[in-house]
Specification:
CATH class of the largest domain in chain B: Mainly Alpha
Structural class of chain B: alpha+beta
CATH superfamily of the largest domain in chain B: Alpha-helical ferredoxin
Helix content of chain C: 25-40%
Chains: A mainly alpha (219), B alpha+beta (248), C alpha+beta (666)
CATH class of the largest domain in chain C: Alpha Beta
Shape of chain B: elongated
Largest sheet of chain B: 5 strands, mixed
Oligomer: heterotrimer
Strand order of the largest sheet of chain C: 5-2-1-9-17
Structural class of chain C: alpha+beta
Number of domains of chain C: 3
Number of strands of chain B: 7
CATH superfamily of the largest domain in chain C: FAD/NAD(P)-binding domain
Strand order of the largest sheet of chain B: 2-1-5-3-4
Largest interface: B-C, 79 and 84 residues
Shape of chain C: globular
CATH topology of the largest domain in chain B: Fumarate Reductase Iron-sulfur Protein, Chain B, domain 2
Distance between the termini of chain C: 43 Å
Number of helices of chain C: 18
Strand content of chain B: 5-15%
Order of helices and strands of chain B: EEHEEEEEHHHHHHHH
């Protein structure tokens, strides 16, 4: 109990929930990626994910909790940190000693959160509505069409791209940093940092590329 | 060279402070920053203005008493130095220099640029020691060999001078670098290992109670630390704390 | 009052052990009834506080800094001596004892110094147990280095910050006791006056520097551990706040002040850069292990260097004068501090100084860099004749040994000492003189003790390198906590001392009057103006070389300056706020009195010994000439209303173990 009440415990919770979200993000990416190569494979996986009871009843709630926890704790810590310096500096040169991304996790976090809202509005709410509220008949082939449909709007694609840029920034600091929080800072840290750089670029860039691919190919 | 100084003036802990502007002339580039402040104060006293109160003592970068936030950075623009070792050759003729106290809720201002850092003392009183009787009836100093690598790392952590630049510079006013340096020094030595569990729990607990912020791994503390204390220490403390919490 | 040094009888090696067994003790239950005040939190004060609290006394500790960890012991760089003989190079308690007596130029007490050497090994054990990260070798055992004035390697070190590591050790021991509630710590408090009740030290008046309030604190004994008075010279390697006030206040209340003129001028400090200079920075003596000291042989080269036309690295070996190696072939660059300092002054006085002010000599690492580089190349099987490689390897070795010192030098002087020789000049560093104490470290006021640099006891007329840390911790951890019990044993039934006694009232009123007088003075000159002037008189007339004419002038000038100070000093602000200028004024007032006694003592001692060099007393070659027949004594001055009237008491020094010889490092 003392662990979660302490500053280090809370940081650790942020790190672990963040890493969990990274895992989710990775699998989400690979599912999306299939949409570029094979409509049927994408539909098949989506159907599985959308209807498998294990995924829907166990993994999905865990994911929701993970997301809720990560951003709620993020806000709580941010507010607490703001209180630790009551009188602010008149002149504060944060850029002199720390990268912008590390100092603005809350900002990139808020952008990602807003995007998550849009994303839920686009996919998850209709999905929930389809399956559980209106209980429409199963249609294993509908997913690809829905996906492509969403990427027709230019505004949506621009928002999508911007959000993933912020996600890249968030990952760039957060991923490697979570290992520091878990107490890992040794000769492997350089490799973790390199992996973070590659990961935080490639995954968001991949999501963006998929979106652009569908946006362009629908015309 | 001639400079414009914007200095934080605050009569006491409860007063509301503000930046006052002073002109200072004929500053030699060989002066240390504090010697420049001495000149300013002599001028102020002669004009009948209350001199600027600032902490300083050894003026050779080891006591950790000087604590100015200069142009947005703890101990100013130079690296691996304290304010007293910062020299005016780092500035140019005509520069405007903003000087503020180290700010944090846990470092309340006493007057002008002087702050109260006794929170650091209290953190160490909570566990920053080895519980050994000081009577000298201990075993021979060479009884336990210590791997040179660990001894060197313990020394690097122990090089912390407790100035508070890490707190001052951290956007969250977190004291993790300071506390982790103390925890690491003892954790790396066999003499300190014995109490490692209680020590890290007690010290982190006290740190939280003092109202310091949380670490968000920006790394600013490591950059601004006049003694180059490494972030490795924070990771070590995280590790120690996690282990200690689980062990209970 | 006659001086009684209370040295125990018997053979020197048994004195301390026997004494410890014979003195009175206070039972653990009774220690709880006894309060002790400790003023100062350097090595001596912090270690004494910790041990006294550990033993069970109620300790109240005071420091003027914002944290006890900042006391100036923190700045000691080089190391701490101990007769461990880990290197097997023939060291022993006796040899450390002998070296210290000889290094002190036969002006210290044999019994005290022997005790110091005895407990020295304990210090290292204690510090290691506390987690002090001393330097170690690859086998995991403690490493040693060699220091000036000795022929063995007995110095333990922690890179260039041994003082900080030892102080943090003592501070951590204190923290443990603060956490247990056995020490009550008063940060940002300055001792303003000693309170004497019925002839015994019973408390102090302290000033809370944050709000200016005067506080009364009572105790059954008062321990002064407030360090040395080097700042009487204004420029010194002491911290800005280092002061004589606590020691001077007890002197004025009856404690004799011993050998005030014994000052150590450290040979390797960074030279003065201009009038704005506020303090001087030491470069550890350990640098002399690997650095060679020289000036150019020819005055034309000196001139060219000063004008910037010639670089020191361009001078060939034949054009250089390694004057220490020339004059003192046996010890070379590792002669004791006083000898090295005077030799530098001699060269600079002759016009060979190498910077603009003519007050600097070179400390050159080029030879060591090449030597180490070749060694490393050999070890690694690389080409020993590759000059670039050898230089790089050599610089790496030097960096590992002295990296932080080199960095500090570069930050201050803006020159790279790996490429060009360092410039150094002597500066005031340590004061061997101090409050007179007996073997128990008690001053001439019953119940008032002085430990560490604040007392006079162990270093005679010159202190050897790495011995100050040793003495501070020896006094604090292992000597005072035993000896104080002998006195306190009579106090177990006294009960808490009442702070409403008239003595407290009177002392507080006197302090208040002085503080009020300062802020109401409305003068014209700042405190620093007077401090600088005092410093100049001291440096010019009571510095590295003294003569009766200069000293007589100094006495008159200091007195006049003091009178002017009281008339014309300007102290801004009020007494009831955080007012650093007011604190400074009170300290400078005491320096202005001490300075006069200092000059008087130097005048009285018409011989050259250790750091005290009288021009009237030298050999034809210009070496110091001691006068054992007339001056083998400690000068203990008793205050009689003003410094000029101080009465001299002589404590004769008897050398039973060591034959008094002319000190030679040739």
């Amino acid at each position: 109990m003392t662990l979660i009440a302490s500053s280090i415990g809370r940081k650790l919770a942020m790190a672990l929930s963040g890493l969990f979200l990274v895992v989710f993000l990775t699998q989400h990416f690979f599912i999306n990626l299939t949409s570029v190569f094979s409509e049927s494979l994408f539909n098949e996986i989506s159907h599985f994910m959308g209807n498998n009871p294990l995924v829907q009843m166990i993994l999905q709630p865990i994911l929701i909790l993970g997301v809720l926890f990560h951003f709620t704790m993020g806000f709580v810590l941010e507010l607490q940190n703001a209180k630790s310096r009551v009188v602010k500096y008149k002149s504060y040169k944060g850029s002199a000693n720390a990268p912008w991304v590390s100092r603005n996790m809350i900002l990139s976090g808020i952008v990602i959160l807003s995007f998550l809202g849009l994303h839920l509005y686009d996919f998850w709410f209709p999905e929930m509505n389809y399956k559980y509220i209106e209980s429409l008949p199963l249609d294993p082939d509908r997913y690809f069409g829905e996906l492509v449909h969403k990427f027709e709007s230019q505004v949506r694609v621009i928002l999508y791209v911007l959000s993933f840029v912020f996600l890249a920034l968030h990952l760039y600091h957060g991923f490697a940093s979570s290992f520091q929080t878990m107490g890992l800072n040794n000769k492997y840290s350089k490799a973790i940092k390199s992996f973070t750089v590659a990961f935080s670029f490639l995954i968001p860039a991949g999501f963006i590329a998929i979106a652009l691919f569908h946006h362009i190919t629908t015309f | 060279m001639n400079l414009t100084l914007k200095v934080w003036r605050q009569a006491n802990a409860d007063a509301k402070g503000n930046l006052e502007t002073y002109q200072i002339k004929e500053v030699s580039p060989d002066m240390s920053f504090l010697e420049m402040m001495d000149v300013l104060n002599e001028e102020l006293i002669e004009k009948g203005i209350d001199p600027v109160a600032f902490d300083h003592d050894c003026r050779e970068g080891i006591c950790g008493m000087c604590s100015m936030f200069i142009n947005g950075e703890a101990h100013g623009p130079d690296r691996l130095v304290t304010t007293c070792q910062l020299h005016m050759r780092k500035f140019k003729d005509g520069d405007t220099i903003t000087i503020e106290p180290f700010r944090a809720k846990a470092f309340p201002v006493i007057k002008d640029l002087t702050v109260d850092r006794s929170s650091f003392d209290r953190i160490q009183q909570a566990g920053g020691f080895v519980s050994v009787n000081t009577s000298g009836n201990t075993q021979d100093a060479n009884a336990i060999p210590i791997e040179k690598h660990n001894a060197d790392k313990a020394f690097d952590a122990a090089a912390c001078i407790g100035c508070g630049a890490c707190v001052a510079t951290c956007k969250n006013a977190s004291a993790m670098l300071f506390v982790s340096a103390k925890v690491s020094q003892y954790a790396l030595l066999p003499q300190g290992r014995v109490e490692a569990t209680d020590r890290v729990l007690n010290m982190v607990n006290q740190m939280d109670e003092e109202g310091f912020g949380n670490c968000t791994n920006t790394g600013a503390c490591e950059v601004e630390c006049p003694k180059g204390i490494s972030l490795e220490n924070i990771a070590r403390m995280n590790r120690e704390y996690l282990y200690a919490s689980l062990k209970g | 009052m006659a001086l009684d040094s209370k040295i125990p009888k018997g053979p020197i090696a048994d004195k301390w052990t026997k004494h410890k067994s014979n003195i009175n003790l206070v039972s653990p239950a009774n220690k709880r009834l006894i309060d002790v005040i400790v003023v100062g939190t350097g090595l001596a004060g912090a270690s004494a506080s910790a041990t006294l609290a550990e033993l069970g006394y109620n300790v109240k500790t005071f420091c003027f800094q914002d944290s006890p960890r900042r006391a100036h012991s923190i700045a000691a760089q080089g190391g701490i001596n101990a007769a461990k003989n880990y290197q097997g190079d023939g060291d022993s308690t006796y040899r450390l004892f002998y070296d210290t007596i000889k290094g002190g130029d036969y002006r210290s007490r044999e019994a005290n110094v022997h005790r110091l050497a005895e407990v020295s090994t304990n210090i290292i054990d204690q510090c290691v147990a506390q987690g002090v990260p001393f330097a170690r070798d690859y086998g995991g055992l403690l490493d040693n280095r060699s220091f000036g004035g000795v022929l063995v390697s007995r110095t333990f070190y922690a890179k260039g910050q041994t003082g900080q590591q030892l102080l943090l050790g003592a501070y951590s021991a204190m923290n443990r006791q603060i956490g247990r509630g056995k020490i009550k710590m008063y940060n940002r408090h300055e001792m303003m006056e000693l309170v004497v009740v019925d002839g015994k030290a019973r408390g102090i008046i302290a000033r809370n520097l944050v709000n200016g309030k005067l506080e009364r604190h009572s105790a059954h004994a008062v321990v002064i551990a407030s360090g040395g008075y080097g700042n009487v010279f204004f420029l010194s390697t002491n911290a800005m706040g280092s002061n004589v006030s606590a020691a001077w206040k007890i002197h004025k209340k009856g404690a004799h002040f011993a050998n005030p003129c014994f000052t150590q001028i450290h040979p390797t400090c960074i030279p003065v850069s201009g009038d704005h200079q506020s303090k001087l920075t030491l470069m550890s003596e350990s640098l002399r292990n690997d650095g060679r000291i020289w000036v150019p042989k020819n005055l034309e080269d000196v001139k060219a260097i000063r004008e910037g036309k010639l670089k020191p690295t361009e001078l060939s070996e034949e054009q250089r004068d390694y004057y220490l190696e020339r004059r003192y072939p046996a010890f070379g660059n590792l002669v004791p501090r006083d000898v090295a300092s005077r030799a530098a002054k001699e060269r600079c006085d002759e016009g060979y100084g190498v910077n603009k002010t003519g007050e600097a000599v070179y400390l050159d690492f080029a030879a060591s860099i090449i030597r180490y580089g070749k060694e490393q190349a050999h070890v690694k099987g690389l080409d020993e004749n590759d000059a670039v490689l050898v230089k790089k390897l050599g610089q790496d070795v030097i960096r590992a040994k002295y990296g932080n010192l080199f960095q500090m030098y570069e930050k201050i002087v803006d020159q790279n000492p790996y490429e060009t020789p360092m410039m150094i000049y002597p500066a005031v560093h340590y004061t061997m003189g101090g409050v007179w104490v007996d073997y128990n470290l008690m001053t001439s006021i019953p119940g008032c003790y002085a430990i560490g640099e604040a007392n006079f006891s162990d270093h005679g007329a010159n202190r050897l390198g790495a011995s100050a840390l040793m003495q501070g911790l020896a006094d604090g951890y292992f000597v005072l906590p035993y000896t104080i019990g002998d006195y306190l044993a009579d106090d177990i039934r006294t009960g808490t001392i009442d702070t409403n006694l008239p003595e407290f009232e009177k002392a507080e009123a006197a302090v208040k009057a002085q503080m009020d007088a300062f802020v109401n003075n409305n003068g014209t000159h700042t405190v620093d103006y007077y401090h600088r002037k005092l410093g100049k008189i001291m440096w010019d007339k009571c510095g590295m070389s003294r003569n009766s004419k200069g000293l007589n002038e100094a006495i008159v000038e200091i007195k006049a300056l003091r009178e002017d100070f009281y008339k014309n000093v300007k102290v801004p602000g009020t007494t009831s706020e955080f007012n650093p200028e007011l604190a400074k004024a009170a300290r400078v007032a005491d320096f202005l009195e001490l300075g006069e006694l200092f000059a008087k003592d130097a005048l009285e001692r018409n011989e050259s010994c250790g750091g005290h060099f009288r021009e009237e007393s030298q050999t034809p070659e210009g070496e110091a000439l001691r006068d054992d027949k007339n001056f083998t004594f400690v000068s203990a001055w008793e205050y009689q209303g003003e410094p000029a009237k101080a009465k001299l008491h002589k404590e004769q020094l008897n050398y039973e173990e060591i034959e008094v010889k002319t000190r030679s490092y040739k």
